[in-house]
Amino acid sequence: MTPFKVVDLFAGAGGLSEGFRQAGFAVVAGSDNDPDATATYATNFPEATVITGDIRSTDIKERILSVARNADVLVGGPPCQAFSQVRNHTRMIDDPRNSLYREFVDVLGQTLPPAFVVENVTGMDQMGVREQIATDLSLDGAYNVHPQILDAADFGVPQTRKRLLFIGVRAGTGMDVPLLNGSGATESIALTRFTGKRKPRYQVVVQQHIRSLRTGEALSNFDNLSAVTAAEAIGDLVSLPTGNRADAMPYSQVGKPNSAYQRAMREGSGKILMNVQVPRINADTELRLNGIPPGGNYRDLEEELLERYLTGQKWGQSNGSGKLSRRHFYAYRRLHPDIWAWTLNTKGDSVYHYAVARALSVREFARLQSFPDRFVFTTDSRRGMIDGRHDGGPAHSRYRQVGNAVPPLLARAVAQRLLAELSAAFPQQRRRTKARA
Fold first, then answer.
1. What is the pTM of this model?
2. Which residues pair with 43 in a beta bridge?
3. Active site residues
4. Which of 49, 50, 140, 215 would give a disulfide with 188, using CB separation of 3.0 to 4.6 Å?
5. Which residues, in sequence order, are CB contacts of 135 under 8 Å at separation 6+?
6. CA distance linking residue 75 with residue 167, whole number of Å
């Protein structure tokens, strides 16, 4: 049987594609405007056609349509910049700021694959936007569409990351829209701050009912993959040295895997571990991190550590008050080893290690997003600002690619459910003719 084919629009580094590939789909093409992201995509999906450029340009659009006409599933996360259009009675798809979203809907309408998945941030789930998007994607009844919010941590990702998914299947095919239910871990467990005479500390608290207790047991069991902690995800990489400039090293130089998750992430990666550069850290930041307990943040700093400059080194901007400014409030956050990470963003200093006073490598970021170690993040070899490139340089681009991605394990859970529906509706080679009927 020929695998069902996936085309990924606004693919970034390829988190959705990786999840669908793990579920057994054939990734045939991916497109994005960022040349650094498509360099990563091309490295990891050599079997796929990679299209770099703005989907709004005629030639890029034609190339995308050419590959998408043969897709069984169209996936992607089209950016939507305008959420407030409901207030002035302008439909979301008509707002010029949402032209990329409109392009996805247009490609869907021109190619009519049996199924699609659209992913975006939960901020879209406001002011009636959810209903608007579902209506747009239904194409006047051509698709049955069901929106749902899923948290990646409920699907074995060591990070809480809520995403709004629109899953659609062609009407009349006999397929049902998959409705996903995860472990419920995020509703059962919380990291709680305790204060008193001693310094603040953070502890995982499990609600006292059967499902929560089972989830708590899974979280503390290093061989259980249904709920994964930060320590289970990156504990074997704790020895990566601060300021390490080598982006590749043998696995023999890091710790042995001590959890089922670490073993799973290492499968198929060979003997060399990639993306292990660790940012340098200044003396002030190191002092502050040593004053913050695992799971903590700037609120846990003692008064003297709130001074803008601690060691006399002048770095960054000063607001003139002599104290840390509001922009620093999310700059000092340490993971807790016994629970998943909070939602990562695109910056390398958005999270610090729970055991040592340092930032994370791109590989550790990737582990927290559930990218396997064989998935290598890179950039376009051309220097300077080229079309579609974001400011910040190669190192920042790699963090950005990881931080913007859909966690592959979340994508895999969606793909597995879609695969079951497609396999039942379109056995063997008959699926394409039935899908077009």
1. 0.93
2. none
3. 80
4. 215
5. none
6. 9
